[in-house]
Amino acid sequence: xxxxxACPTGPVRVGIxxxxxxxxxxxxxxxxSHPSAELVAVTSRQYAxxxxxxxxPRFASHxxxxxxxxxxPDTERLAQQVQLVFLALPHGVAVEFAVPLLxxxxxxxxxxxxxxxxxxxxxAEFYGHQHAAPEWLGRAVYGLxxxxxxxxxxxxxxxxxxxxxxxxxxxxxxxxxxxxxxxEGMIANSLSGVSGAGRKAEVDYLFVECNExxxxxxxPKHRHLSEIEQELSLAAQTKVTLQFTPHLIPVNRGILTTLxxxxxxxxxxxxxAAACHEAVGACYESAYGxxxxxxxxxxxxxxxTKNVVGTNCLELGWRTDPRxxxxxxxxxxxxxxxxxxxxxxxxxxxxxxFPETAGLS
Amino acid sequence: xxxxxACPTGPVRVGIxxxxxxxxxxxxxxxxSHPSAELVAVTSRQYAxxxxxxxxPRFASHxxxxxxxxxxPDTERLAQQVQLVFLALPHGVAVEFAVPLLxxxxxxxxxxxxxxxxxxxxxAEFYGHQHAAPEWLGRAVYGLxxxxxxxxxxxxxxxxxxxxxxxxxxxxxxxxxxxxxxxEGMIANSLSGVSGAGRKAEVDYLFVECNExxxxxxxPKHRHLSEIEQELSLAAQTKVTLQFTPHLIPVNRGILTTLxxxxxxxxxxxxxAAACHEAVGACYESAYGxxxxxxxxxxxxxxxTKNVVGTNCLELGWRTDPRxxxxxxxxxxxxxxxxxxxxxxxxxxxxxxFPETAGLS
Amino acid sequence: xxxxxACPTGPVRVGIxxxxxxxxxxxxxxxxSHPSAELVAVTSRQYAxxxxxxxxPRFASHxxxxxxxxxxPDTERLAQQVQLVFLALPHGVAVEFAVPLLxxxxxxxxxxxxxxxxxxxxxAEFYGHQHAAPEWLGRAVYGLxxxxxxxxxxxxxxxxxxxxxxxxxxxxxxxxxxxxxxxEGMIANSLSGVSGAGRKAEVDYLFVECNExxxxxxxPKHRHLSEIEQELSLAAQTKVTLQFTPHLIPVNRGILTTLxxxxxxxxxxxxxAAACHEAVGACYESAYGxxxxxxxxxxxxxxxTKNVVGTNCLELGWRTDPRxxxxxxxxxxxxxxxxxxxxxxxxxxxxxxFPETAGLS
Amino acid sequence: xxxxxACPTGPVRVGIxxxxxxxxxxxxxxxxSHPSAELVAVTSRQYAxxxxxxxxPRFASHxxxxxxxxxxPDTERLAQQVQLVFLALPHGVAVEFAVPLLxxxxxxxxxxxxxxxxxxxxxAEFYGHQHAAPEWLGRAVYGLxxxxxxxxxxxxxxxxxxxxxxxxxxxxxxxxxxxxxxxEGMIANSLSGVSGAGRKAEVDYLFVECNExxxxxxxPKHRHLSEIEQELSLAAQTKVTLQFTPHLIPVNRGILTTLxxxxxxxxxxxxxAAACHEAVGACYESAYGxxxxxxxxxxxxxxxTKNVVGTNCLELGWRTDPRxxxxxxxxxxxxxxxxxxxxxxxxxxxxxxFPETAGLS
Lengths: 361, 361, 361, 361
Prior knowledge:
By secondary structure, chain A is of the alpha/beta class. In chain A, about 30% of the residues lie in helices and about 20% in strands. Chain A is globular, with a radius of gyration of 20 Å.
């Protein structure tokens, strides 16, 4: 009987498939310092045979980085080495590793988009090809701990949310669920650092092409909309369509999202604006007041990515506008931590019965 | 009879009051190379006695920069030296220089907010104090040449628009006037480089505080809303209220504005989206097809500030979204050129009867 | 009898005077996570009364940051609260706090230049005024643990080296001591990020003035030369004069130093170059092979500040040039960590009998 | 008889081969605004068929950019279209185009390293392969107008210096020629912006890999040494060997070089230091006092790349150090303008009998 799901007594042995990109590198950083997980395998076709220290000089002071070598990705061998695997692979590739690993009883935390959607048709619409293992779509847990904390501990397959979705869903889900905002007409304007594009040798992401540049892209139908709208619709109990515009900004890390929302209770003057502001604050306090990684900004300060970079925190601020009747919500995260690898480790902690903040503070 | 308004035969003698800030420096750059304007006076309390070359080493190769010295600002003396003055001063200070210069027959192009509003009450609401010369509010021409080209040649006092307003008004005015969009519910999400904050020694604008940071500010009632809404209301022939959110981004120059709009003719599917897209393109072509400084992006490219930095151009792109029914319009300018000093020179060209692009191409 | 020097049984209570600058902020970050030091006092005239979380939003998730408030600096009160104080104050101000604290039996780790020099005359020459407490100059230990590890545990007053000195001394000291290089004619060319200038509201350090700029400064007699030459002379057992040129570079953090040296054994061809390279490697291996915070780059990789930013590590690489006969040594550190606050914590660990890497890995 | 060398009556028709890189783009920018050169051909395998406006949106407002299309590079066709060609091609490729163009009577200004060296053996040593047309090596004029102004007007083939060489040679040549410094032991420490690496899709030059990074590279034998030492040796009339260390810095443009030199007349105290400083100043004044593109910084200001970016100027500053006896010289240029395309246009002006500053001010 495969009992790997049980809470382990010793450290959990984990591996990373595709550890040479930015998310993979961040996973390495977090897992090497994790008190209860032991990183025993990292794979990369490109770097097989080299140590972590050779590929990532910044980790060279860590004993494990000098000892651990990249290997060719081999699911059979991985299944013997580890109890849990993080997949930091491109969309469409992750599924090829996830299924054989799952079949061998290895728990999988996938950072790609391959298992985020529940419906194969939506996947095909947004990703342009049929899903390779649609039978697994319904069995993955969406790895947003603030939302799926109950389902995660027993999950075999976790689909870690995208970076933009994390910055949008955490602010929106409680407001929708509490019925504080109208589910129609919501707008998310997002800014992302360049690491969001991955470590890809493309002219568009060269220093000179990005530095001193600000530009929208992927307008109007970015792929991340599919998972965002899926989760928003579940929370709102109605089909939600979102306006979402990402922009590329010359910083290494960070996502700053500004949300334009319509309160259900009309805001028409200073009094109703204050009431709305307070109701939103109460809703967030109730939803996130005890969350380790959501920081509610209740004073005059607004979110700033520099305050969350390198951490698993999301900064959340809000304002009501009596002139327009709108509610503005702003969030900031590190796209590689709360937007990817940190959230994956947070999920791992829940799967393994570790304190949720283990390795993340 | 004061005949200074007449088209001059020789070069027009111009001066800059407050030439030590970023806008002032950019005016110096543009005017030193202007074919028909002669920069004969620059003032600065801080730098009085020094040459332009000493204060701005980057201009030191220009003979005029080595010859021309900053003087103390003195309206009487200026009135003897120049026919036209650019005021690159803080809000509330410009008015103190504008009025005596105007009274002495000098034409004034003011880059501050002091004369942009038509109503003293709106000024007081947004700027927090009474206007010092309300009688002049109605006599200034708003210096947006694409809009006020007919009124500018005879203007004595020009109020050059703010940087954000320029990036918002050029995209919106023709759409409102043509009735292509609803005047309610418009949203402007803007990103600005740090030079927009001026050359002020404040901790918030230190390199380390801005680099690797993205942050909203001035939410929800930025001062620029007053002039934006004034001009939008005139075009829409109804009172318009705008949602506007500026963000600070670590680039030296540039404003990128993303506008969220609702087409009057509903967009519900691919066909209506295409029709809207085409109608907007026709409207822009009609409004700006012959404009030297508005670049309509009709292909797949979206606006990018790096394509306009250092120029007086505004890049303009648009997309319709059949999923949400919205129209998205995006613009990019250099905040110091089309958003300030370049536009001021463009106005100067109109006032003096020069070709509108003189000194700007 | 004051027995505070003894190795404590519980956590050591520490305080920071002047915690609102960049070094102070970095000390806060490190000490809040330190396993054996307890940060119980932070002072700042400017922020007295506010919590750490209010002044540094990035720390707001840390319980201590929400609890601990800045107080007015008061040496008497501090002496009751803490056993050890970090001074993160400007040069000339630190001495005013150090002496009363020392007199009250508090151990002092000073990050300023006030106690780095052994001779009051040198201080006066380089800092332009008489030293306020010359009797303490000889009693401070220079806080470079790789050099003064034996003296530090019993030190009452530690003078933490400057950022440039750290990047220069660690590479040079063992080479001089081993007699591998000539002490004459050495050159240090250094590049620094802007945080090295401190959190000062000066126009020179505004984002727009630093971004897209590279510039030397402080040529040819920077103040840091005094402590560098003092330590080099001690190691070389002869008076050493160094050529040192700092440059300001648009990054937040980091110092990259390139040293131009002359090997004592002439390098004239490939063979002597290889022998020199090997001898230097052996010297460094002997000096630093067991150091936790010095990373010897023995392969093809050269130092890169991005590999040390956020860490207490110094990257060290070297090359011999058979064409010129020179030895080139390159080092990279984070100016705020190994160049200031991390090194201060490393010293604190030695003073308190903690593992030297406590709170730094 | 081929009379193309004669000074033309109308505008000179010019072309650019390889116009899609950063140097090519900068040539396009300069030549489109040139008063006497007419850009009639641009070639690029990758972009053949597209207009300049499509490939470089920033030029889209220029009528020529909308009209001129990239063509496949075809030397026969080019020879019919143009009188002069700029080659902005990789090393080793330029020679393949230069020779057939020269044979057809087209004058060639080559921005690559293919014709900078006089000796084929040195080329082979530094570039790792035999030169494809060694017979042309002796016939090219090195395109440093401040040095070869007399030879350039009649040149058929110009080898434009590299960016680092320009920043090093202009400061050093007059000092060597005047015998003010010793030709032995010179050191050049250079910092370069990322555009110096070209528009190449390589991971090393991605935004995230360069931003917040400072690193030396190419140590100790960079290819540019070959041309630098050739020209230094000619000026010194003895074989010169230089120590040269380039560093990569996160700016788009600019080279900052700091030179460490030994004055021939010993500097040992304040008086000899002042005398040396004055002699160097007189030497530079004599060499460059009438140069349009060399700016001598005689006051307290030191070179800063932000003061030359976008211009063809070189900023030059110097200091003597009585403590070390050395002379320090610092220079700043825009690597794409004075370090490449601007200098190429300056050469073109000399070849064609235009004012040397035409199109460059």
